[in-house]
Amino acid sequence: MGEQAAVNTRVSPVKAGTSPRPVRLGIDVPMLLSVAFLLGFGLLMVYSASWQPSMLREEEPAYYLINQLKWVVIGVSGAAILMYIDYRRWRKYIVPIMLLMLGMLVAVLIFGEMRYNSKRTLLGGSIQPSELAKVVIIMYLAYWLTAKREVINNIKFGLFPMAVILGLTAGLIILQPDISATITICVLGMLLFFLAGVEYKQILLIFLIVGVLGALIIAVSDTGQMRISQYVAGLQDPATASLHIQRSIESVVRGGFFGVGIGKGSTKFSLPVSHTDSIFAVIAEETGLVGAAAVVLLYLVFMWRGLKIASHATDFTGKLLASGLTCWIVMEAIINMGVMVNLFPFAGNALPFISAGGSSLTMTLGAVGLIFSVARVSSREKQEQEGRSYGAVVNLRRGDRRGRVSRSHGSTGIR
Q1: 3-class SS of residue 25
Q2: Do residues 407 and 414 touch, judged by C-beta distance below 8 A?
Q3: 293 CB contacts (<8 Å, ≥6 apart)?
Q4: Element (H, E) at 107
Q5: How far apart are CA 386 and CA 350, in angstroms?
Q6: Residue 9 CB burial class (10 angstroms; 0-12, 13-18, ≥19)
Q7: What is the DSSP code (8-state) at residue 117?
Q8: Is the pTM value of this prediction over 0.90?
Q9: CA 94 – CA 90 distance, rounded (Å)
Q10: Using CA atoms in the order 365, 369, 372, 376, what is the torsion angle rounded to 10 degrees?
């Protein structure tokens, strides 16, 4: 009896240590909840803001809502697939994907339908390649900068090739013309170049080049000059701003603190593209400062968790990919909301997860899937590392013969 007790006392800790540990799925719950709330709230606001545009198209009042639901299903399904694919596998396919994206941008210039004095879409407006370009350029630069990390501070191998990559992509987009997407591509390139650890003198040189090119684009673009002049006029006196900005500011003022109620806003009837680029103004009117602040808070949660995932990534590519995609989505939100209150010159950036539109929504959800992929890979590798460490501890305990209790002398002590 005593000997059996001695053996059981010694063996029980090993059995307890081999009990199943909790499985980490690698899904960041706060980020998942922030995306879910933004999607759900976005569907509600799209329906509220789009029934008049739906009727103007001679469709049912829920036309844009049903269309948005379709893209939500497609986008969420795509995000789930991307989440379960190791993001490092895309490295071998990134060059063909980049070429495909450039080919689509060229196709827009040749076959695109002219709308609002620009060619931006294919297949009757259902595909907008500039949205795909934003995700692809982040992916390409993440892999490329990782490969060039050792020579990134050499201008011949770092700055010049990156300028060619960004210049080709941005050049095709500016020909549409799409100034806001062009600026977004350039800013994303500079951001990733900075995160890759390039010297500050090159960052300053990039700022100088982009500033000069931006000034030239605005100087030769009638649309750019008009937007800058309207922006300056709106800063001096909101009553002299563009009609679009006047209506959006009116929506914010009418909304007050708690809003007029969802579906009860009236400014949306005179607000251009109320269900797409201007939907934040509808949110401000119908849910007030409280609702608008809640939306901002959700984007802040998304940014916090995305950068957290990037910081925990196990490789440099994962860090660049997660941080780049997170910053892109948050930047789009900041620009959209800032334009509605005349903090920035007018731009055509959609409000991520909320604005109606298939290309923007699917690309944004695809980016979320890639961020979750980085999180899953990091969690899996951490779990495997912990498993190896635990296995080493168990093996050491099994191989330690000195810890055994002597059968001839230990029984009386245990009793």
Answers
A1: coil
A2: no
A3: none
A4: helix 94-111
A5: 42
A6: exposed
A7: T
A8: no
A9: 6
A10: 160
